[in-house]
Design goal:
The protein has three helices and three strands. By secondary structure, the chain is α+β, with helices and mostly antiparallel strands. 0% of the residues are buried.
Length: 65
């Protein structure tokens, strides 16, 4: 990944899984298991400075095969 993106994404965890969990599909109203290809969980850069929180889980990008 080229700079400056690499430094901005240095604390983001990337996880790869075959499929997401069923409750996430239900939450988004997705019926086809193959429809969701990725998901970001966490606090975006814009929102991060506005409301600092303790005990916050790390930002994570899930990629589904």
């Amino acid at each position: 990944m080229p700079e400056p993106f690499r430094s901005l994404a240095s604390d983001v965890i990337c996880a790869v899984a075959d499929f997401t969990e069923g409750d996430i599909l239900t939450e988004f109203g997705i019926e086809n298991l193959f429809e969701l290809m990725g998901l970001f969980t966490g606090i975006g850069l814009v929102q991060d400075a506005s409301s600092p929180q303790t005990g916050q889980l790390p930002n994570t990008v899930f990629l589904y095969r």
